[in-house]
Design goal:
The protein is built from 2 helices and no strands. It is mainly α. The longest helix is centred in the first third of the chain and has 27 residues. The N and C termini lie far apart (about 85 Å).
């Protein structure tokens, strides 16, 4: 009896993984499955909240304008060879 159980387990384990993968994708397409909304529902703001949001936006813009522009860094600059004389441009016909 014990060897028959091992035989069934050896048979079922390789079949379980593909079956699980197939049923998972089928469940995702099921219209009766619970739905998960990924889009945020828009909240209606009161006039006070709208004014507060405008003030926060203005403060954010003012703070970001104070930050100086950063020079783009090139971590591979010391590894690359220096450019040679540029090739002449081809004339378009």
């Amino acid at each position: 009896m014990h060897s028959a159980r091992k035989k069934w387990i050896k048979l079922l384990i390789p079949l379980a993984a593909p079956l699980t993968l197939l049923t998972g994708s089928a469940f995702a397409q099921n219209p009766l499955a619970p739905s998960f909304h990924t889009q945020k529902e828009e909240k209606h703001l009161t006039p006070e909240e709208q004014e507060r949001q405008k003030q926060l936006d203005a403060d954010y813009k003012a703070a970001t304008n104070k930050v100086p522009d950063q020079k783009a860094s090139d971590p591979w600059a010391s590894v690359r060879p220096t450019p040679t004389v540029p090739a002449p441009k081809k004339k378009q016909q």
